[in-house]
Write a structure and sequence with these properties.
The protein has helices spanning about 25-30, 50-60, 60-80, 85, 90-100, 155-160, 180-190, and strands at about 1-5, 15, 35-40, 100-105, 110-115, 120-125, 130-135, 145, 150, 165-170, 170-180. It is of the alpha+beta class.
Length: about 210
């Protein structure tokens, strides 16, 4: 048997037994792993290469559908604990916001935000990576936003055009909050506005 530990949670979040699968998030969507899996005793495990996971998902729609459905379910459980933006909130505020998040898979290369245009939503990266570019970075290759990081906070809360562009590196899973709803929630939960102070600050989880 084994158990899963998430950052910010001292107790195990799940226990695994024969037949359970772990690691499909990073294998399918890419990006660093967000959970640690620890064996409780001796066990044997089958390892499947990420390239094979993605090849199977491309070939068999049922595999793709199952991976994406599982990713959504696990993200709903883990994102409140791995996202600095959500962790800053009290439990009632966090639950109110998480209940309104809409999870969707974005295609490789799909633009989430375009510099100079109003952001349609705040987006939290739930699986995979999002490349940031433009703005003060100019033509140089920008950093990646990874699991738990928030995008579009400045544009949505201040109601101004996006200062950066963002696109999915590969397929990615994002949790979105429409702009009008996000502003209404910020009125009810003012600590959301504190996220503006964290924009582009390493480790604070607010990319733009």
């Amino acid at each position: 048997a084994a158990y899963v530990a998430l950052p910010g949670r001292p107790e195990p979040t799940a226990f695994l037994s024969a037949g359970d699968i772990v690691g499909e998030f990073a294998a399918y969507f890419g990006g660093p792993r967000t959970a640690t899996v620890l064996a409780q005793d001796h066990l044997e495990a089958l390892s499947i290469a990420p390239t094979l996971v993605r090849a199977l998902a491309r070939r068999y729609l049922s595999v793709r559908a199952q991976v994406e459905e599982t990713a959504r379910d696990r993200a709903r459980e883990s994102l409140p604990f791995v996202s600095p933006l959500l962790r800053r909130l009290d439990s009632a505020s966090r639950a109110d916001i998480c209940a309104r998040l809409v999870y969707r898979v974005v295609a490789e290369g799909e633009a989430l935000f375009v510099e100079g245009e109003d952001a349609a939503c705040i987006a939290l990266v739930a699986a995979g990576e999002v490349e940031l570019y433009g703005g003060a970075m100019g033509p140089s290759r920008g950093p990646y936003a990874r699991v738990g990081e928030a995008l579009g906070v400045t544009s949505v809360l201040l109601e101004e055009p996006a200062g950066l562009s963002a696109r999915a590196v590969r397929e990615a899973l994002v949790a979105t909050l429409p702009a009008d709803e996000a502003r209404a929630l910020a009125q009810r939960h003012p600590r959301l506005y504190e996220a503006l102070e964290d924009v582009d600050t390493p480790g604070r989880g607010v990319a733009c």
